[in-house]
Design brief:
- By secondary structure, the chain is mostly helical.
- It has one domain.
- 80% of the residues lie in helices and 0% in strands.
- The protein starts with a helix and ends with a helix.
């Protein structure tokens, strides 16, 4: 395990961040919002390539901490990583700008698709280009797992914890249980092996804060129960509650949306909900822009804006509340051990998601070749992933047109 001196050096690195211009932050996250296909694991992989490898804004260890923190709080994890990066590079203005610029392109694109859906009654056929994009995304995630794994798996014990976390993820155990379990195992190992108690108070404070975050949204939801009307305040409140409680992937979001909007309120049909989730999955940017699609279908452009604001506002609030805590946690032994465990578990969850995505993406010889070629270009020649995603889209569109 890293010694206290190493932990304090890691903590100092946070406060030694250079300030990045708001224009540079905006340009980066607008581009990522337009090109980041494939869900949270892929988004995080693309952000790592940009902010760790290309721009050297963060170290691998710092980026791992952001992933771990984003997985501990509710909401869209990749969007929260973007918001954390914005805060570290340009404080409060950066926090707002990075998150907004990452969400905005996806929200506008989803709104356009929703307009076509409402007008013509079906999804645009152009979404078929994802046939060629998905294999490239798999290669991008594998590259990120390789780089982050070398930093996260610092000891044999951490490797073992990561393997157990991966098995639990494949077995369908709750992501939140996996994250907390891995963190607490590392805390126990730190105490048993080194009798190290430094940092117990900040660790207990972290766990208490996370408990409050878990309970508060359910209290908020009590004010949005039982009504069937579709006015804007209620629409906002419903999506605010969803954005405050949803952990995990788009499939977890689907379960919450079905319960809230189809079963309890009858606002959508099951077919409409599946179309909404499909649009969120196949467009670039946050998967949670499913809310944008639903809001548009229900109430036009105004509904799209209100639903999007409600869904993503908790992410900004949760990051704002926790952004200053991370450096302090790295200064203490037990809290740092908890973060190490969470980081390893987060990578295990990414690996499990990558396996699931791979089974869907690698459907034939062409997609396998695309994935292998993309991996070689990324790992050996460091090609910008945005160009590979564009190339995959072209190959996919041509292949489907020929068929």
């Amino acid at each position: 395990m890293p010694r206290p001196g190493v932990q304090r050096e890691e903590a100092k690195a946070y406060s030694a961040q250079e300030v990045t211009s708001l224009w540079e932050l905006a340009a980066l996250f607008l581009r990522l919002g337009l090109t980041a296909f494939g869900g949270p694991a892929a988004h995080i992989a693309l952000m790592r390539q940009e902010v760790v490898e290309r721009r050297k804004w963060l170290t691998e260890a710092q980026f791992l901490d952001l992933i771990g923190a984003a997985n501990l709080i509710p909401g869209p994890s990749s969007t929260e990583v973007a918001i954390y990066i914005g805060f570290l590079r340009a404080r409060w203005a950066g926090l707002i700008l990075a998150g907004t610029c990452f969400i905005l392109p996806a929200a506008l694109l989803v709104s356009l698709i929703a307009w076509a859906y409402v007008r013509f009654g079906r999804l645009p056929a152009v979404l078929g280009v994802l046939y060629g994009v998905k294999p490239v995304v798999i290669a991008v995630i594998v590259q990120a797992l390789w780089g982050l794994g070398k930093t996260a798996l610092k000891t044999r014990f951490l490797v073992g914890v990561g393997l157990v976390a991966a098995v639990a993820a494949f077995a369908g155990v709750s992501p939140l249980l996996i994250l907390f379990g891995a963190g607490l195992v590392l805390v126990g190992e730190k105490w048993l092996v080194e009798r190290q108690m430094e940092g117990l108070t900040p660790l207990l404070g972290l766990l208490l804060a996370l408990s409050v975050l878990a309970v508060a949204p359910w209290l908020l939801g009590r004010y949005a129960v039982g009504s069937q009307r579709q006015d804007m305040p209620l629409l906002f409140l419903v999506f605010l509650k969803l954005g405050s409680v949803v952990y995990g992937s788009g499939y977890v979001l689907l379960a919450f949306l079905r319960s809230e909007l189809v079963t309890q309120r009858g606002w959508l049909t099951s077919a409409q909900l599946l179309d909404a989730v499909a649009v969120g999955q196949v467009t670039p940017g946050p998967v949670f822009t499913t809310a944008t699609f639903i809001g548009y279908v229900m109430a036009g452009p105004k509904g799209a804006f209100v639903a999007t604001l409600g869904m993503f506002l908790p992410a900004f609030l949760f990051v704002a509340l926790s952004a200053r805590i991370l450096p302090r946690l790295r200064q203490t032994a037990l809290a740092a051990a908890f973060l190490d465990g969470v980081n390893v578990a987060a990578l295990a969850l990414m690996a499990a998601i990558t396996w699931q995505l791979g089974r869907d993406a690698l459907r034939d010889a062409l997609t396998v070749v695309l994935a292998i070629l993309s991996a070689v270009l990324l790992l050996r020649f460091k090609v910008n992933s945005a160009w590979l995603i564009l190339g995959g889209a072209v190959v996919g569109a041509v292949a489907l047109a020929i068929r």
